[in-house]
Amino acid sequence: MEVAYLYSKPRSEFGKPCKFANGETTVLHSILPTKDYDKDYIDKKSCEVCISTIPSMSESYVNTENVATKNSSIFHTEGGWPKDVDMTEQTDLARFRKKAEKDESYLSAVRKLAPIAERCMKQNYTSDLYQHYFEKDNLFDHCSEPPSAKGLAVFRDPSNVKRSATSIDWHPEISSSKIAVSYSIMKFQDERLNSPNLPTSSYIWDITNSNKPCIELTPQSPLCCLRFNPKSTDILVGGCYNGLITCFDLRKPDATTGSCAPTETSIAETSHHDPVNDVHWISSKTGHQCVSVSTDGKMMWWDTRKLNEPLDSLILYNDTNHGGVNVGGCSLEYNSEAGPTKYLVGTELGTVVSVNLRNRKVNNGVSMSDDALGKKHLGPIYCIRRNPIHNKFFMTIGDWTAKIWNEDLKSPIISTRYHESYLTGGCWSPVRAGVFYTIDAIGSLNVWDFNHRQNDSVLTYNVGRVPLTSISAQGNPQVTSNLLAVGDEDGTVSLLELCKSLSLSQKDEKANILNTFERETRKEKNLEAREREFKRSVTSQNQDVIVENEDDAEGDAIIQDIEERFRKLLANETDEKSEEPSNMMNFNKD
To answer: What does DSSP assign to residue 257?
Structure first.
């Protein structure tokens, strides 16, 4: 059905403009809601669908399990003899040899092999395959290679409880590939210290095998420090968390477990009362003496063959003249080349204590560095090390800076810039006089090279995300090495390999660094002289002011005395004048 309606309009009304006007609101029609038609319809539920044109992908991490390897060896014994010959009987062996030497085939074989063996021996004597050419002239320039480092191996603490690698010590022999690592929990009142299953073992690792330590050390208490004996490399000395001193002999392992128990241990009554922060072997005739330091404020000398009582002890004070307060030692340095009786101790107050046993009669041989603000560290000194080439100068690390000192002065000669994080340790390069390393609490290793620049480090290597706690470099001034071991708070020791520019000595570097240190020493001496003159002038001015005040006081006393005498004279004159009229009157009456 088609519905149509025809609208008609005159031609004259085409094109007229529309006129709009405001009017009242009118409702044309209103339809109220109703449910009468609900049965004729079905409600459609809403459904949301997300469509993306990007293909969906998943991310997963896969880590292979560590495979523990074990080194095994084969022992070849004597064999190859005929069945009728007993190799344990020398007569049978001699009879068989004589019979074989008379055989014609044996003689012909010897004649054929002799020229070949002779020719090979002559070739070996012709050229030395292991000869190193241009050893002395092989000096690398610093600018020829940018400083760099790379990781070689990682040694993890086998125990289930996470402990800090408190110290690392390389084997004294460069040919050996062993390092001694001590593990302990150094946080004060840590909950793990109260655990009955707290591990106390420390380990000796072989850097060629990072899967398993080669020797386990089992002391009574966790070790805070551990050192190889430079003369008898099979003997080690360690300082425990409970203050005891222990000695280990690697030649006497346990028959069943293979671990090494202490051969000697000190007594608690005569030992330190705080954790032993550092221990060093010292120069002696026997080679069995060592020195230890702790935060209880004592230095103790020991003989590792008899640890029942110390050989000597010394109490550290912050004021050597008037006693003062007992200060705790956080680090210790001893170098026999600098002097067999000289010791350096880094304290909790940020100052350096110098001990010289030759001057024991003067202030007990103890001298303290300047404790003025700006001349000491703002926190404990965690590391103090002498320069291995220029032993007169040493380095201290504490708070956010590293400072270089001269043992003849009481203030530092060089200070590095403030790092972004707290410094926890450091060491000198054993080969290069102007290179040293620092570690911090964010897991970074900073390399400083004073032969290149002094205002900033030349390399920053991120070892990990865990605070670093210990560092040690292999080698000595006579033998070069490019290996560096760094330990962190979780007990992981990272083995790093340094580039040649950091591990080989530069041309004229020793003389340049010595000139730099001596120049800064002269500058510091001039500043100290000016400071003393300024203090002397201030003191003299104060004394002049005191003398002037005393003169003024004497003048005031004299004036006051004159005034009192003048008042007395006036009083006497007035009394005499008051008596004269009465006398005149008496005279007139007469």
So the answer is: T
pLDDT given at position 307: 87
CA dihedral 156, 159, 162, 165 (to 10 degrees): -50
Amino acid residing at 427:
C
Pairwise CA distance, residues 16 & 227, whole Å: 112
Local structure of residue 179 (DSSP, 8 states): E
Among 364, 371, 372, residue whose Cα is nearest residue 320: 364
CA dist 178 and 215 (Å) reads 10
Give 65-68's long-range contacts (Cβ < 8 A, gap of 24+). 66/211, 67/211, 68/211, 68/212
Tell me the C-alpha to C-alpha distance, in Å, between residue 271 and each of 78, 484, 485.
55, 33, 30
CA 116/CA 120 separation, integer angstroms: 6
By the 8 A CB rule, do 425 and 397 touch? yes
Task: Give the tens place of pLDDT for each residue, 135-178.
Answer: 555 544 545 678 888 888 889 888 888 889 999 999 888 888 88
Residue indicated by tokens 């449910």: 35
pTM greater than the 0.70 cutoff: no
Nearest to 486 by CA among 495, 499, 476: 495
Nearest Cα residue to 482 out of 504, 503, 496, 505:
503
What confidence score (pLDDT) does residue 246 get? Answer: 92
Residues in CB range of 48: below 8 A, 6 or more apart = none
Which amino acid would we find at residue 513?
I
Question: What would the pLDDT profile of 420-438 be if each residue is shown by its tens digit?
Answer: 888 999 999 888 888 999 9
Q: In the chain, count H helices and then E strands.
A: 4, 30
Using only C-alpha atoms, the chain has a radius of gyration, in whole angstroms, of: 45
Residues 6+ apart with CB under 8 A from 264: 246, 247, 304, 305, 306, 307
What is the structure's pLDDT at 183? 92
Is 432 exposed, middle or buried (CB count within 10 Å of its CB: 0-12, 13-18, 19+)?
A: buried
- CB-count exposure of residue 302 (10 Å: 0-12, 13-18, 19+): buried
CA contacts within 13 A on the Cβ side of 53:
0
In the predicted model, what is the mean pLDDT of residues 115-141? 72
Residue in the block written with tokens 């929990």? 185
Average pLDDT (286-303) is 89
Q: Name the average pLDDT for the chain.
A: 82
Q: Please state, in angstroms and rounded to a whole number, the distance separating the CA atoms of residues 365 and 359.
A: 5
Q: Can you give the pLDDT at residue 475? A: 82
CB neighbours of residue 215 within 10 Å = 18
Q: In 131-244, at which residue ranges do the beta strands (DSSP E only) sit?
A: 149-155, 164-170, 178-184, 202-206, 215-217, 223-228, 235-240
Question: pLDDT tens across 374-395, in order?
Answer: 788 888 898 999 888 888 899 9
Half-sphere exposure of 257 (CA within 13 A, CB side): 8
Dihedral of CA atoms 420, 422, 426, 428 in degrees, nearest 10, equals 40
